[in-house]
Amino acid sequence: MGMTRRTLLGSTAAVAAATVASPAAHASEVPSLWREFNRTPFTHPQIPYVGRAGCRGGAAHFPRRPVVADIRRFGAVADGSTDCTPAINCAIAAAGKAGGGTVIVPPGTFRIDDVIRLDRSNVVLKGAGSARTTLYATKNLTELIGVYGSRYGGDKSSWSWAGGLIWLAPRARWESLVAAIRSRAWPFEGWTGNRRDEWRPLTTVAPARQGSWTVTVTDASSLRPGALVLLRLRDDADHTLLEHMCGGGPGPEAYTWDDKTKLTSYVPYEWPVRIARLHGRKVTLERPLPLDIRPEWTPQLTTHVPELTGAGVEGLTLEAVQTPQQPHLLDKGHNGVVLQCAYDCWVDDVTVRHVDNGFGLVAASACTLRRTRVAGRGSHHPYFCREGSHDNLVEDFTIEQRTIPAPAGTQLHGINVEGLSSYNVWSRGDMRMGTFDSHRGLPFADVRTDITVNNDGRHGGDASAGPLFGARFTHWNVRVTNGRAGLVRIDGLAPCSATVGIDEVREFDQIDTPDFTGDLHSRLELYGSPGAVRPRNLYEAQRRLNGVAR
Questions:
Q1: Higher local confidence (pLDDT), 149 or 62
Q2: Which one of 211, 370, 385, 423 has the largest count of C-beta atoms within 10 Å of its C-beta?
């Protein structure tokens, strides 16, 4: 990182001056919010700092690992009848034993009758391109693993929001999750793993402010540069941590938190981060603090279950056998690619077709999904981001229009975020169906920018999961092709939020109401002027403030 506030603000001024001076931009097109952000990039009250979201801080290029296996050498054949799952999983295991590397999936269509388990760090599953390599999945997760029922009772299927036919997760997480499902014991899916006790404290942390890059710890003897640690913040009896996530003030203070049982099951808030530098008891982090650190929240740096890191999936299409979409929350698990307990992992040039749920981030952080596409008969969650997923980047993504009408009783969400997930970015998107699905569970400080959406989906979320939005949600340069307001214009819904450069919209078929009373301290600028706002893409502009070339 090696970046000081003075360095960043110097480059900020240069970018701002260049933006204003450009012949293609007029002063009226540069929102005052952007000028304010330039002055306080890490602590702005409405716009979060997401300039380091994504794999390896948002790097433009992913690691290139040497080829160590070709699935054909393990028995895979592109004949449409041979189950190639054992060959692919054996090739992944061999690459893992070799310390990592690339597993080649050549052009052709390979049948898979089971889950592809990418459970080894530094292993890349690489096809010849999404137009040339296809994995054809014949079964769903209910058939393969069993009924993954809801922890809240009833007949809901948890395959509606978890699990993929290509599943990136540490081997221990995979094994314990499958065992729990088969014994019908609900597993917790957070960064501590499937049990709350799979961690140990490393040190307590002194009070600090949101946006700080450096913290002071009590004991640095167990820390080292490059290590991944968890910052854990517990809520207190008055729920002041949850109030802080919503920007504080009279509205959140008056909100009823105690009956939001699903939401309170998500705390403590767990934020994984690498240590950049150590100097005595001073610890510099690779990203600035997402929240204040206060003594009443028992702030600690802790260990965690071993993460999956440095793994990727590239250049292929995953096509599920075409079956009718199931009624809402009864998905069978024809799911696409899911990253769970993953850090610094990626998916690039991957299409999923005919899936229940497309691409998932479950307790995943600092991962990038780039050039991804959801196509075919329609899906429940084309993209989902949940269970404390932070600092992820989804860019150059497409949700295609469904190829067949949606059956009665099904529901389409879109780009989902929930479960205290924070500082995630959706950038340069083409959504031909769906919506901006803030799915309750108090997601906060997330950014959606430079997206075109045919806003025909519905948001979801259990009432016990609490608010739709926390503080510092930002929608920046959004083109709404059908003029529908639902969850795109958020200045009347989200506390301490920014809605900048969106089309004029109207309410249609769905009423969105704020969770908090009183002044939301939200901002609306350049309403009705998508495309005219400068900078066009908020995430990329924040990257330039870092002095990082894309």
A1: 62
A2: 385
Domain with CATH 2.160.20.10 in the chain: 57-187+309-488
User: Which residues, 6 or more positions from 167, have their beta carbon under 8 angstroms from its beta carbon?
Assistant: 115, 116, 117, 118, 119, 174, 337, 338, 340
Residue 123 contacts residue 98 (beta carbons within 8 Å): no
Phi/psi for 242 (5° steps) reads -60, -40
Give the pLDDT confidence score for residue 439 in this predicted structure: 93
Distance spanning both ends of the chain, measured CA to CA: 16
Which residues touch 263 (CB under 8 Å, ≥6 apart)?
A: 242, 257, 440, 441, 442, 464, 465, 466
d(CA 374, CA 354): 8
| Total residue count of the chain as it appears in this document | 550
CATH number attached to the domain at 57-187+309-488: 2.160.20.10
Q: Which phi and psi angles does 241 have, rounded to 5°?
A: -65, -45
Tens digits of residue pLDDT in 407-449: 888 999 999 999 999 999 999 999 999 999 999 999 999 999 9
How many degrees, rounded to 5, is the angle at CA 129 between CA 126 and CA 131?
A: 145
Distances from the Cα of 301 to the Cα of 182, 193, 220, 339, 483, angstroms: 33, 16, 10, 23, 46
Kindly calculate the radius of gyration of the chain based on its CA atoms and give it in whole angstroms.
22
- Over residues 227-241, the pLDDT tens digits come to 999 999 999 999 999
CA angle 391, 392, 398 (to 5 degrees): 150
pLDDT of 393 reads 98
Residue 96 backbone dihedrals phi, psi, to 5 degrees: -60, -45
